[in-house]
Structure formats: C-alpha cells, structure tokens
Amino acid sequence: MSFRKLALRAFDALAPARRLTVVEGDSLPGSLPFRRLVLAREDDEDWCVGMRCPCGCGRKIELLVIKEAKPRWDLKVDAVGRPTLTPSVWLRDGCKSHFWIRGGEVQWCD
After folding, report:
1. What's the rounded Cα separation, in Å, for the pair 36 and 2?
2. Any bridge partners for residue 86, and if so which?
3. Consecutive 10-residue runs of the chain (110 residues): their mean pLDDT?
4. Cβ distance 74 to 62 under 8 Å?
5. Which of 75, 70, 20 is nearest to 46 (CA)?
6. Angle at Cα 54 formed by Cα 15 and Cα 47, nearest 5°?
7. Does residue 71 have a cis peptide bond before it, meaning omega lies within 30 degrees of 0?
8. 35-51 as b/e, with b when 16 or more CB fall inside 10 Å?
9. Contact 1, 7 (CB under 8 A)
C-alpha cells in the first residue's frame, strides 16, 4: 500500500464521521464534496448516492438506491446525519477499493 493511501486512512480514522447532503433531482452534481455522501432525491424518491472514493484516487462513485435497480444499495441515516450503506462498495477496476460505510465511517475490507 502506498504512503498516500496509508496517510489518507490515518486521516480518515481521526476525522469526524462523514455526513449526508441531499440534493434535489434524479442525478448527482458534477462535483462531489470531500468526505461527504450526496443523495439525489426527486419528489421524495431517493435515486442514487454519490461520493468520492475514500482511497484518494478521486474517482466519483455512484450507487443506485431506487428499489427497481440491480445492483442497488440501502441507505440508512442515524439521528445525527451519519450514513450507513449496505452492501459494501467494491470497485472491480481502477483502484479496486472495497469498503463499507457504517455510521459515516469507512471500514476497509483488506
């Protein structure tokens, strides 16, 4: 593992939990904020969740949460706005990151 990835994981462990931002519409904005998950919601229907890859590669990750989609993810948000996604996120190409988002924290699958 590179020094950069180790440093990002150390920072991630010490930084506050990620939070969820909701945007109106059925798609994500072109630019995603650092350390936040963005939920695209249109007319009270959740469409997708987006984030930048926590490994630091900069990749934009988009996960569908609509019931008809396959694959799809479930999103739960606790009382203070910390998101949990299930199942895990596994990028099969590029950086090949594999992780969970639980209570706003990244838990890596090594």
Report:
1. 23
2. 74
3. 77 86 93 93 95 92 95 95 96 95 93
4. no
5. 75
6. 110
7. yes
8. bebbbbeeeeebbbbbb
9. no
